[in-house]
Amino acid sequence: MSVIRIWSTQVDPERLDEYLRFAHTISLPMFREQRGFLGVLFAGDGGRQIVISFWSDLDAVATLASSSSYSHTVQAIEATGFLRGSSHVEVFAFEGGLPPAGI
Residue 2: which of 100, 95, 103 has the closest Cα? Predict the structure, then answer.
């Protein structure tokens, strides 16, 4: 069973470019190092941003949560000051359809 993990947050719209740079230069390489990682999408509408990551199974998502590189990445993004409010994580079984190209 494949799994999707959705992380949602608010970003200071004036600092959106900084957030996107962080996502592509820090978060993406960290995800690529994780066991069971299949792919990721970064999406948003200005202030609201989501990260949809694809995983081989629930164990891979649990391993991510306890990963030191993930923990360091979370600490680093929180330290930037461009996040606003609270962030939320949801995990769902991938039940069909076509994943984005390249996944």
Answer: 95
User: Is 100 inside any structural domain?
Assistant: no
pLDDT exceeds cutoff 90 at 50:
yes
In a domain, 59, yes or no: yes
**CA atoms lying within 13 Å on the CB side of residue 65:** 11
- CATH number assigned to the domain comprising residue 61: 3.30.70.100
Torsion of CA 31, 12, 17, 7, to 10 degrees: 20
Token output for 81: 């000051």
Distance CA 13, CA 27 (A): 19
Residue pair 82/15 in contact by the 8 Å Cβ criterion: yes
> Residue 66 falls within a domain, yes or no?
yes
Kindly indicate the confidence band of residue 100, based on its pLDDT and cuts at 50, 70 and 90: low
| String of DSSP letters for 58-79 | HHHHHHHHH-HHHHHHHHHHHH
pTM, 2 dp: 0.87
